[in-house]
Amino acid sequence: MSGKERREQLIEIGRTLFAERGFDATSVEEIATKAGVSKPVVYEHFGGKEGLYAVVVDREMAKLLSMVTSGLTGEHARELLEQAAFALLDYIESSTDGFRILVRDSPVTTSTGNFASLISDIASQVEDLLGVHFMHRGYDPKLAPMYAQMLVGMVALTGQWWLDVRKPPKAEVAAHLVNLAWNGLSHLEGQPRLIVQEQAEAKVRRAARKTARAARVETK
């Protein structure tokens, strides 16, 4: 196994153990044993448990930030909120171990920061778009950064809760998040639905009507 392959193996093993047991309960000896190497090999690659943990955290934070920011493609504020909620829930679903690590208190200073700073990074991506929406609606755009923090923070905290319960389904959780954020408690919809769901269903209906028309033409 090359040095690069060994490093990746140790990162994956560390990621799994940190997610299952936390930083304090995971030892360099355990990491080395799982990898089938001696403890000095771990120190050689990462300088110790702290160095390995920092690499794992940085990678997960970069992955989550990329998933959320790349998903923000809508022009409407409600679409952006839906996309942010879906991206975070997608990350939790596909990288459960990574999210468990991120929501723990980090014992080391990483180059990316901590989970709170990650949320701020995502919020900064949202605030510019939200500011444009505020101006169009006649609201003070200077309030956009605060509202961006509120919205992204609400999504992140809900994601932490959903991490363990996994109920209701992801799409339903996202729909209710948007329902609360968009309509407010005084204007909640009884049966909230996502724009993306309605668009997908409308596309299916249009295709069905087109097929039906074609079938009627053929029978004439």
What's this model, at a glance?
This protein is mainly α and 220 residues long.
| Gross morphology | globular
- Helicity level: over 70%
CA-to-CA gap between the ends?
Answer: 69 Å
CA radius of gyration is: 22 Å
Roughly what is the average pLDDT, rounded to an integer? 85
Number of helices: 10
The low-pLDDT segments are 108-112
What fraction of the residues are assigned to beta strands by DSSP? under 5%
Major pleated sheet: none
**Structural class of the helix and strand makeup?**
mainly alpha
How many beta-strand elements?
0
Order of helices and strands: HHHHHHHHHH
Structure characterization notes:
75% of the residues lie in helices and 0% in strands. By secondary structure, the chain is an all-alpha fold. Helix 5 (77-94) runs antiparallel to helix 9 (170-183). It is globular. The model is unreliable at 108-112 (pLDDT under 50).
